[in-house]
From TrEMBL:
SUPFAM superfamilies: Thioredoxin-like. It comes from Coralloluteibacterium stylophorae. It comes from the Bacteria. This is Thiol:disulfide interchange protein DsbA/DsbL. GO terms for molecular function: disulfide oxidoreductase activity. Residues 1-19 form the signal peptide. Residues 70-177 form the Thioredoxin domain. Residues 26-75 are annotated as: Disordered. PROSITE patterns: THIOREDOXIN_1, THIOREDOXIN_2. Keywords: Redox-active center, Signal. InterPro entries: Thiol_disulfide_DsbA, Thioredoxin-like_sf, Thioredoxin_CS, Thioredoxin_domain.
Length: 177
């Protein structure tokens, strides 16, 4: 009985490693990537030159492996977003105006921005440093608020903890802890 289980475990662990190795070694059985058209020499050199925030993959992997999740999120290089230069968004095509928007705590004359988050969500945790930087530069007519997602199960106690911290005035001290 133990041998079939051992065989199954070995297959489940070695097959993915073999698949990764086949792609690295250029195995003819591995699917070929589509080739891009050749670029002029000056564009090729510019594309190959590392940017100011670029670090080799090995350094990033070592940094992330040697620290916790929060440290890895802080160590990740912050990329400046390029300004939008596309077409002007059109109502009804690119977005829908909400006729009766729900406001958590409306303040007359202020724009309310609400982040729905979960303390156990890795995507929310990865976005938090970006939001902290963004919140520091908000104009005076914008209010930023948190709204914990209580999707059920293990999300609910964390949402309750947020509301308890909010009631006690401890959100600033506990939210990123």
């Amino acid at each position: 009985m133990l041998k079939p289980r051992l065989l199954a475990v070995l297959l489940c662990t070695t097959l993915p490693m073999m698949a990764c190795n086949a792609e690295q070694n250029g195995d003819p059985a591995a699917p070929q990537a589509a080739t891009a058209p050749a670029q002029p020499a000056d564009e090729t050199a510019a594309a190959a030159a590392p940017g100011p925030g670029d670090t080799p993959v090995t350094e990033q992997s070592a940094d992330a492996a040697g620290s916790g999740t929060a440290d890895a999120a802080e160590a990740a290089p912050q990329v400046e977003a390029a300004p939008y230069d596309g077409p002007v968004p059109v109502e009804g095509t690119h977005y829908v105006r909400i006729a009766q928007p729900v406001e958590l705590a409306p303040t007359p004359g202020k724009i309310e921005v609400v982040e729905m988050f979960g303390y156990t969500c890795p995507h929310c945790a990865a976005l938090e440093p970006v939001l902290d930087n963004w919140k520091a530069d908000l104009p005076a007519d914008v209010e930023f608020r948190y709204l914990p997602a209580a999707f059920g199960g293990y999300w609910v106690p964390y949402a309750r903890a947020f509301f308890a911290a909010e009631t006690l005035g401890l959100v600033d001290a506990t939210h990123n802890a």
